[in-house]
Amino acid sequence: MGIPSETVSAEALETVDGVFRDQQAGGAAPSAVWGVFDRSGLVHTGAAGRLEGGAIPDADTAYRIASCTKSFAAATVLALRDEGLLGLDDPVTRFVPELAGVTLPSADSPVPTVRMLLTMSAGFPTDDPWADRQEAMSGEEFAALLRAGVSFDSVPGTRFAYSNLGYALVGQVVEAVTGRGFREVVRERFLGPLGLTGTAFEREHFEEHRVAAGARVIDGRWEYLPMTGPGVFSPIGGLFSTVTDLARWAGWLASAFDADGADEPGSPLSRASRRELQQPHRLIPPDMPHNVGHPAGYGFGLFVDHYAKFGPVVSHSGGYPGFSAHMRWSAARGVGVVAFENATFSRVPVTTTAAFDGLLGSLPEPKELAVWPEVRDAQRAVTALLRSWNDADAQRLFTPNVGLDMPFAQRRAALAAAIDKVGGLVDGETTDASSAAPSQLSWFVPGTVGRLRVHIQLTPELPPRVQSLRVEALAPAAAPALG
């Protein structure tokens, strides 16, 4: 289950609407649509502006989602991997023989692998301006391009560089393994089984009034652009989709982190592989434009940022001539935002991130930190020990290293000094502070003029034991931590 919709407050949804409406009112695009979702589906949708023919868009209006398509391409590769049809560390030349004659950047460079393609680390240069215009390239033209040679920015497997060429090659890998067209494979493996009826590679799939035309500003007026047809570069960004469908896709990916979940019968991709898509497999350096201020990495067809308070946040942007798209969700909370605009150089990813950050910050804190039951038992035992220390009880509670790291006599003295700083301990409820992992916990013990912050870590044994204890006096002045 996702977060129940009632926990996303009306005020938070109004704020989300305001962020997007302000963006659209500023002339960012002729139209915009957005949606808030959790693992159970859409919670809220909004729209602004009008389509070329004057219709008002809604959650079932199709826009090009551009590079958000890469998550579908990566999921397809993992599905084929799970069936034993390829290995992620297979060299690309096994599937794309035209690359066999390519000159690598150094004598000791490895041949790019499927994994390198998926993680944007095959060594190719960043290529958005060029690649965004190549979608309709034929297979024959692509083969000729590869035979003529490709350039490298770095030794394959050594650094991140956003590469559409790499994902065009991903499509070729899929076709070589299946003997079928990439678009057909995605349609049959994911779009059909997941009920994504509003998602397709072909403009003709949609009724005229149900699809947005892309636009750009010329002499202060919107000029609507022709649609490019599908081709060998479709894996980089060829899909059209709706807020309804893309929210369903993102929510399905996010549901892989639901602690109470299980693989659905007939699921097109296992929960384990969906989680694998959403892991940061390749570091994105802080000085790169794809880094938005958090520690960041690229997974398989998805970006992963680490928010200090909320943990992993998964996303991808899409930009095509005339279109901009973004999808973003919290892996832990399963709540996210998707949004589209139909304009070249629209900054909908920035707007979506701002809306998402505000939404995430508005969610209620979990009622209880997700830690092991043994951690709760240890919390109670440690709290009792702090109130009345007994070496025999400590010996039973802690692993031997605790006494070796700081002899109990020294620990008793340091603990007494910390308790004195908070004016002595008083009766009262302890309060959770944080947990970096299910095996750890920090909490507060009340004192007369302050409180103690206590932190424990348990061992990987069964049953686990307390291997670390830290106690800190927080008032009136912070005391040194007890190791």
TrEMBL record:
Pfam families: Beta-lactamase. Residues 17-346 form the Beta-lactamase-related domain. It comes from the Bacteria. InterPro entries: Beta-lactam-related (IPR001466), Beta-lactam/transpept-like (IPR012338), Diverse_Enzym_Activities (IPR050789). This is CubicO group peptidase (Beta-lactamase class C family). It comes from Homoserinimonas aerilata. The lineage of its organism: Bacteria, Bacillati, Actinomycetota, Actinomycetes, Micrococcales.
